[in-house]
Amino acid sequence: MSIQILxxxxxxxIAAGEVVERPASVVKELVExxxxxxxxxxxxxxxxxxxxxxxxxxxxxGIAEHELVLALSRHAxxxxxxxxxxxxxxxxxFRGEALASISSVSRLTLTSRTEQQTAAWQASAxxxxxxxxxRPAAHPVGTSIEVVDxxxxxxxxxxxxxxxxxxxxxxxELIKRLALSRYDVGWVLTHNGQRIRQLKPALxxxxxxxxxxxxxxxxxxxxxxxxxxxxxGIKLWxxxxxxxxxxxxxxxxxxxxxxxxxxxxxxxHAIRQxxxxxxxxxxxxxxxxxxxxxxxxxDVNVHPAKHEVRFHQSRLIHDFVVSALADALRQIxxxxxxxxxxxxxxxxxxxxxxxxxxxxxxxxANRHQEAQESLNAASGYALPxxxxxxxxxxxxxxxxxxxxxxxxxxxxxxxxxKARPAIAQLQQQQQYLSATAEVATAAVAAIAQPIxxxxxxxxxxxxxxxxxxxxxxxxxxxxxxxxxxTANLLLPLRFNISDNQIAVLxxxxxxxxxxxxxxxxxxKLLIVKAVPVWLRHTNISQWLPDFLQQLIxxxxxxxxxLLTILLVEANWLDAxxxxxxxxxxxxxxxxxxxxxxxLQSSLALLAKREI
Length: 611
Prior knowledge:
Belongs to the DNA mismatch repair MutL/HexB family. GO terms for molecular function: ATP binding; ATP hydrolysis activity; ATP-dependent DNA damage sensor activity; mismatched DNA binding. Keywords: DNA damage, DNA repair. It comes from Rheinheimera salexigens. By secondary structure, this protein is α+β, with helices and mostly antiparallel strands. Helix content is 36%, strand content 22%.
């Protein structure tokens, strides 16, 4: 058979095989066109799961009369005009083949009116003929598209459709995803004349919280932490569910890149890695996350359905997502702690007893609460952040500001809890520090958040005495840190290095390997393949060059002490991560580099200041 050019009708049907997989695919293409047209209200009517009728109506900018025929032509679009536009795509659609493909396997009617026109016009096309009929019509500003008898001329495709209930389930899930991507748009979804969803525009934080609760369940909204984090022009925000509240079944996993729905493998891997060991194998993560990035740094033209993207700096994106989410998850109190805090608050309200800091057999139970508050305030130690019993709250780390997080009341309406100052958390700390308080059991002490000063010193109680532990010195013992496992990186990190750095790395190759790093040097390039687990969530690409420079400047050999000092003092590593990673080793007082906290002398000093 000789080579020949395919007819437009056949080419459109082949394209429809990629674009139109099922009724939900049609809805996706039509609704995305509405969003690109600036619509703020979209109505979707479905009959018989979409096989009989799909109607999408919007109040967008509309299509001019002379462009209606072009709109149903293949490779015709208003969203891009030249090759450079593909490098920075901001619209949801851009290929210009959806309407032509849909009309080739259905009976399609497009009615539209622009604001400049006094009347609307209607274009119709059906099946392989591709002839477009134009006639006047009545319609407000905006566009309506009806797709009737989907796959009427391709019986094989129609035979593979599932039941009406199943097909509509896919459409409903699609609308949920789209509604979570555009809070400023109102949505109405009906099936066989019955209204299934009606969502008003969500313009305020409270309204956005309500939409998340309506689409992802109140349980998700109640136990999800709100996150916002940014770094070098990349922004991540949204909600991530508490690990203890995650379920075995997949119920809420929505991720977006620049407002586009995604099922990207890199993002999913980063999210799962952020949960780490906090999530058991029988549970799956739950999240609603939005990644915002320069359109020039992401390629969306790599998947027929645009479900996947290719990041130009995939390693940076992956590590940023892992770091941001891991920081947020570390700040979520465990469910057991929420229960204990609730019990502590109730006990404190029902009793006039004020727990003291017990350093001798008599204790300080009879001292005034004001003196205890002064002691805590003057000590310089950061008290842990309180958590609402209704909803754990988290914020991103780094330079970004945290988004307001709401707790959901029994009525389902979000209520914002004011952040309490450190002194207002005294009751929780008293229960943690007191050995005489009835509520302060060993379990409470084990799960309370650590009190850390200067990102290095841990204030901890042991046998009725409070100690200040130097974490860096305590953990400088190689036998302690070498017990940590090594974590392989998804993508190796690459660094350009100088001759001096090569010499230092070569001289310390054995020590570097003992620290848990797996790296090779090739052509003035350092390739890091694995790092110690406790360093996995740090920004390796930023602190490693500084670490190498310190080795050169100070003529020192690689060791845990130098590494931990650099990371902690430069705030590359949160001291709480050290406690979390090496809690078992730090539970041995004989290994502590610590001094006791002299409360009596501190109180005496405070008394003198008052005089």
